Every structure is written in structure tokens, then in C-alpha cells.
């Protein structure tokens, strides 16, 4: 858990993820991560991802990561203001075992994204919008 580590940079997170390919749980909320830090990362073992309040993340960076994380079960993107249905649809398509999803404060996610989750993530038990 690296949540709120003020000295941690996006480049540091990128290096960590490139070296620790077996990582299962990543919590980097409040860390200044940018899209470019996530696009070339492959964490196929990741089951838990929390990027809440990473306000610089957009769909392109998160979708690039999520598409390479088919084992995700819990995802929290709360207060990532630039995320849209594109991220939610990528989760629905790439993460069939998702059990919990939180997107509190993500005002650009609509019914379309929620519908995609309902159709693609049959194991979903906890939804927090």
C-alpha cells in the first residue's frame, strides 16, 4: 500500500510495476501518477487496484493498464474526474471476475458504463457510485 506517499512519483510507480510483475494488490491513491506511467506496464497477477484521487489519470492510461490485468477483482477509481464510460467498459470487457467497483465522484460515468459492468462482470457484488 503506497496510498498518499508524498515522496513517491509516477516514475517511481512505473519502475515498481515494471519490476514487480507478480504484484497482486496496488493501492496508489493520492499519488501523482500520469497516463504515461501506466501504458507500458504489465501486471497480469493484479487482483486489487486503487487509484482513487489520482486526478491526472485519464481513460487512455487506465484502459491500457486494465486491459493487461484480467484477474482484477476490486477496482477503486473514485474522484478520478477525467474518467469516462471508456474506462468502465474496458473493465467490463477485460475483468470478468470483478467483485467490487467504486467510482465515487466520477461524474462522467453514466448509465452506459453501469450497464456494461452489469453485463460483463457477473461476479460483481459491491458497486459504489
Automatic annotation (TrEMBL):
Return the InterPro entries for the record.
F-box_LRR-repeat, Leu-rich_rpt_Cys-con_subtyp, LRR_dom_sf
Signal peptide as annotated in the record: none
Which Gene Ontology cellular component terms are annotated?
cytoplasm
Record Gene3D superfamilies: Ribonuclease Inhibitor
Protein name stated in the entry? Uncharacterized protein
Q: What organism is recorded for this protein?
A: Eutreptiella gymnastica
Taxonomic lineage per UniProt? Eukaryota, Discoba, Euglenozoa, Euglenida, Spirocuta
